[in-house]
Design a protein that fits this description.
The protein is built from 2 helices and no strands.
């Protein structure tokens, strides 16, 4: 691309040089003062924006930690419920007795002791002490 002849006062980038006022004039001093005010204003605006950004980042980090904690709690709860569900039979399969699959080892022991009591075997347990109420394992 060919360029025409350069005009007087143009730099290599093709822009005109601005006229710079003499350093000892009122015009120069006023221009410097306006520039100093503009620079201070710009820097203060940048600091304010940075503080707001940092505050937002901290808020979002805290919110993220809270949500991660909730996710962990819910995941543990889900695992617990899955474990309980996996160890049960479906409620439609429950009848008046509690199936062996629904009983813990302690419940099985209590049920065996009740059975022994019903068959005439003496035990230290009082009658009905180990009865499971309302099918608490299969509901």
């Amino acid at each position: 691309m060919k360029m025409g002849p350069r005009r007087e006062g143009e730099g290599s980038s093709g822009t005109r040089k601005r006229r710079q006022p003499q350093k000892d004039t009122n015009e120069y001093l006023e221009k410097r003062e306006r520039n100093n005010v503009a620079v201070k204003k710009s820097r203060e605006k940048a600091r304010t924006k940075q503080k707001e950004t940092n505050a937002l980042v901290n808020k979002l980090r805290n919110e993220n930690k809270t949500l991660e904690t909730k996710v962990n709690i819910l995941a543990k709860e889900l695992d617990l419920l899955r474990g309980i569900f996996a160890n049960r039979i479906a409620p439609r399969d429950c009848d008046n007795s509690v199936p062996e699959q629904c009983l813990s080892e302690e419940d099985v022991r209590v049920k065996q002791e009740e059975s022994d009591d019903d068959n005439g075997n003496n035990s230290d347990m009082s009658a009905g002490a180990g009865v499971l109420m309302d099918h608490e394992y299969c509901s």
